[in-house]
Specification:
Number of strands: 0
Distance between the termini: 56 Å
Number of domains: 1
Structural class: mainly alpha
Order of helices and strands: HHHHHHHHHHHHH
Radius of gyration: 28 Å
Length: 333
């Protein structure tokens, strides 16, 4: 898929980084690493492993629900999406998991990817609802929870909603077929399970950010709950290159009222980017390169062992058959 280079997003990311470096000098960022708590950093790494395993299990279960039960294929598409998300604005490349399957399966995987991202968005909205009790008066927080409860049936019926919306797209009938198949394989009773998995993944993600923050500054868990969902939203906006710059700026801005130093907030956001985005993307790139090299090696080996005609055999086949005494050619045995 060819697309123009996102120069605007790159320029915005570079501009955000310049502003951060200007407002927060580099010595302050380096000083935060001197007091790094390695135990909290180790706990954050364990939480990121749980996060990756939970997301992989959720994605595999979604694919298995509609008949695609190969774990290797599930992991390949997930890691390939991570790799694309690294080089696209707002991690939109994660929606391109369908590029790593066969052509006749792409629409099916695209529908499942959209559904998976909706589950992650719903889990993030759940965390935003919880953060309201720490940010706004109780009546406003209760109103936010009421809105969440209204959206809950919509989330459970999201496969049917996608199928209904697909029927209105008359030009893409194949998309309608695959959306209907996904809706039939994922009834609302099954969506409860995937919603819980999405919440489990977000919990591991929140815990990882909390331990990263604790590695630089002794912040409380309430601080992470009150700020983390909005830091994620800032990084997911498709107006910067991979969310770089905006995520760190939002962390510094949101954590300052909780007495967290700007250097510690930016360092925690940078390490979150490394663990949650950069490392999975590099793992996906390594997976795809390894598959490519193995495929090329197998092709070379098959060509090397391919039987070839020897010159004597070729001459024997092309030579005319000997004639008998009557002048007629003998038939080949």
């Amino acid at each position: 898929m060819r697309r123009p280079i996102p120069w605007r997003q790159i320029v915005l990311s570079v501009g955000a980084i310049v502003v951060i470096v200007w407002r927060v000098p580099f010595p302050n960022l380096r000083a935060a690493f001197r007091t790094l708590d390695w135990h909290s950093l180790l706990l954050a790494g364990c939480c990121f492993q749980v996060l990756l395993a939970t997301r992989a299990y959720k994605w595999h279960c979604l694919m298995a629900a509609v008949g695609k039960v190969r774990p290797r294929q599930s992991l390949r598409t997930l890691l390939g999406g991570f790799a694309l998300g690294l080089i696209t604005p707002g991690r939109l490349g994660e929606l391109g998991r369908c590029m790593f399957v066969r052509k006749h399966e792409r629409i099916h995987v695209a529908v499942l990817t959209l559904l998976d991202r909706l589950l992650d968005l719903w889990a993030l909205l759940t965390l935003i609802g919880a953060s309201l009790f720490l940010l706004v008066p109780p009546p406003a927080a209760v109103f936010g929870v009421a809105i969440w409860l209204v959206l809950l049936p919509v989330m459970l019926g999201s496969p049917n909603l996608l199928a209904h919306l697909a029927r209105r797209i008359e030009r893409v009938r194949e998309f309608q077929t695959h959306a209907s198949e996904v809706a039939s394989g994922l009834p609302p009773s099954e969506m409860v399970r995937y919603s819980l998995l999405a919440l489990a993944a977000l919990t591991a993600e929140l815990a990882s950010f909390f331990f990263l923050l604790r590695a630089f500054y002794p912040a409380g868990f309430g601080t992470a709950v009150a700020t983390y969902p909005y830091i994620v939203l800032a990084g997911d906006l498709p107006i910067s290159f991979g969310g770089v710059g905006l995520r760190e700026g939002a962390a510094a801005l949101l954590l300052t009222p909780y007495a967290v130093p700007s250097g510690a907030a930016i360092d925690a956001a940078l390490l979150w980017f490394v663990f949650a985005i950069l490392l999975p993307a590099l793992l996906g790139i390594a997976w795809l390169i390894t598959e490519r090299v193995r495929s090329q090696f197998r092709f070379t080996q098959s060509q090397a062992h391919r039987p070839e005609w020897l010159p004597s055999q070729a001459a024997q086949v092309q030579a005319p058959l000997p004639a008998d005494s009557a002048g007629t050619h003998l038939s080949a045995p």
